[in-house]
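Bench notes, afternoon.
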Amino acid sequence: MSVWNPDNIKDVAESIGIASLNDDVLQGLSSDIEYRLSQVLEESLKFMRHSKRSTLSTQDIAQALRVLDVEPLYGYESTRPLRFGEASIGPGQPIFYVEDEEVDFEKLINAPLPKVPREITLTAHFLAVDGNQPTIPQNPTVADSRSQELVPKGPGANPLSAAINGADNVTVKPLVKHVLSKELQLYFSTACSAVFDENSDEYRVAALTSLRTDPGLHQLIPYFVQFIAEKVTHNLKNLFVLTQTLQLTSAMLDNKNLYLDPYVSSLIPPVLTCLIGRHLGPPGAPLASFSLRNTAATLLDSICKKYAKSSHTLKPRLGRTCLKHFLDPTKPLATNYGGIIGLQAVGGVEAVRVLILPNVKDYETLLREPLEDEGSSRQAEAEAVLTALVSALQTLEEDVIGSRNNIPDGETVNHDQQLQEKVGPLVAGRVLQMGRPKFVDALLETGAAYALRSSGAS
């Protein structure tokens, strides 16, 4: 027996043109309507309970209908109380309806009219007079114009590119709100100021030591990564700031409690900038940046050793970048120097054997002119690059098995000529001046073995 009255279904059926319905059909429809209503009520009660309320509202019914994929009832607002009226039609069940609000026409007619909207008009005003913007309502204020200038433009704009273009104080609204405790905020500001304190070595050492050992810095990792990138971008002429930035990066990498794998791709660009940047340090001091580049190469070596297993493309990408800047004749000699030591740091002996040694003879032609320029800054740079080349080639001496005794006596006379044909006269002269026959044999044996492997592969 259904609670829902079958007579209501019969009335609805007659209103749409169905004159007679079987009693079994009426009973089945009544049961289905009862089930559907109970389902809607159960879902509505769930919304009411989750809203911490004890009164069921029309909004709960509407949300329940949406959950059940039923179009909700429109025109019922839960913000105003509903007044139901009762109407009885004959001796049947009474019908309840929502009473419409009565409007007093006299009050409506006597009510004041709303304000007439202003007409659309066009007015002309001066945007600028003699280069000065007049302070009128039509023009933006000075604060608005300054903030608009600092915001990066374009779909791919970012704060680093905007900083390169001259905007130092770029404000970017974060996509996700990240809440930091006051203690972490204080630690971040204190550590950053202490690392770059030029007047106190004690503060710098204490800050770097804390960054190397503190286990509770996980929430500050993205802020330190962004801080490192901004410092390198804005201070390319300040070697102290760049050096301290590398020290800060090294301290974070040395901290065993920090998980930096997701941030390696963001830490590498600042390090590469310090390694192969075109113009680093103050102008007029070409050799000043070479120590910075050595530090960057050492840091790049530690990054590759620590994260090469988790990122299989890390070493190949870094090797291609360093090789490109090593062989590019349009780059400064300092950049070529960074490419050489970077290749050695990233790939080790194998990179020296495969990438540096076959290109030494072609590259040394770029060093002849600067080396002949006596007393110039380019000569000092070329000497440093030549020393870096010879130092990189020395790693082959320990790797190659064999010594001078393994070569027949008839071939020892031609070592000088063979070496010059292999690495060029400049590098060959430096190698022969060292008086290390095993080093010479290592270069020749490496070249012969590489040539055999290349011919066999082809």
